[in-house]
Amino acid sequence: MKLKDSDITLKGDKIIEHVPSIKDKALRINLNENIYGTFAEIGAGQETVRHFFRAGGSSGTIAKAMSAYDKDFSDAIYGNEEDGRYVTESRLKKMLAHEVRLIENRLKRDKHPNKMFFSYANTVATIDFAKQFKGHGWIGIKYQVEPDEDYNEITLHIRFKENDARLQQETLGILGVNLIYGAYYKYNDPKKLLRYLYDHLDKDQLEIDTINFSGPRFADVDNRLMSLQLVKNGMTDAVMFGPDGHNILPAAILYKKNILALRGSFRPVTKVNMDMYEKSYQMFIEENKVEKDKALVIFEITLSNLRSEGEIDERDFMDRAELLCSLGQTVMISNFQEYYKVVEYFSSYTKARMGLAMGVNNLVDIFDEKYYRHLSGGILEAFGKLFYRDLKVFLYPMKENGEIVDSENLMVHPRMKELYKFFKFNGKVIDIKDVDEHHLDIFSREVLKMISKGKSGWEDMLPPGVAETIKKNHLFGYDPKKLVAEQNQ
Question: What is the pTM of this model?
Answer without folding.
Answer: 0.89
